[in-house]
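2024-03-11 09:14:02 DEBUG pipeline.ingest accepted 1 chain
2024-03-11 09:14:02 DEBUG pipeline.ingest length=127
2024-03-11 09:14:03 DEBUG pipeline.predict start
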Amino acid sequence: ARRIRKTIGGGMRQAGVVAAAGKYALEHNIDRLVDDHANASRLAEGLAEACRGHLRIEPPHTNIVWAEMSPTVADSFGAYLKSRGILVSADYGKQRWVTHMDVSTVDVDRAIAAAGDYFAEMSSRQT
């Protein structure tokens, strides 16, 4: 029980700081969630198309897009994206892409284009 409590933030001393940020978001940014969810849907559709079947994209229900691929592809793909200023959380071949108020539709399109470029280069190296 203690381990689980700590994994979900129960061991934080300054939990009020995080709670204050959450309270602010609830009071000022709820209406923006529609935009974040639309960007997540746009991202998921664009990645599915651009990645030529190398990724398994789960349809997003929120502002989070999950993409699954082989761990070897995930490592090089993540490094490629990072070199282009796109940060994606990854663990064992599953990537988490998150849209939020600092991610615009232009950013989403740039991320889709970078993913497409990576998989195009990967395909050209294999042939």
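2024-03-11 09:14:41 DEBUG pipeline.report The CA atoms of residues 56 and 68 lie 5 Å apart.
2024-03-11 09:14:41 DEBUG pipeline.predict end
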